[in-house]
Design a protein that fits this description.
The structure is a single chain. By secondary structure, the chain is mainly beta. The protein has one domain. The longest helix is centred in the C-terminal third of the chain and has 13 residues. It starts with a strand and ends with a helix.
Amino acid sequence: MSNTVIDKKTETHKFGGWIASESVTTTISLVNMGDGKFGLSYDSKFSGVKDGHVQGGPFAVDGNKNIKVHSSPDVHLTISKFDKTSSTISMNVDITVDIPVLGTKTIFDQTLSGTYAAAAGWVAAAASIKQKSAGI
């Protein structure tokens, strides 16, 4: 089953100088996982002191939280200003990474928000057809 993307944002940061530098591009997607559940998916590419690419998710998000999502290097995720109504959702996502030689740096700090359907598209369509066929 695929998830519906509500909002998607990308940030690119360059840290350090010519001796030790790092470039990090991070994309975070806020997704509707269905059944009233929401999540975040991530894709991050980095080069410089260390080169690599990590991606994953979605992992469930249901409120404000501050969690360590990875060790070596330390990666911390902070979700704040979480707000959800019957048709909208909004949250600020902040990610910090302990980059070797350069120290702790913020690689993503943005608000993700948007509207969503209370039911998945096909579920809402089936309910509508059932109502029409019943003469409601």
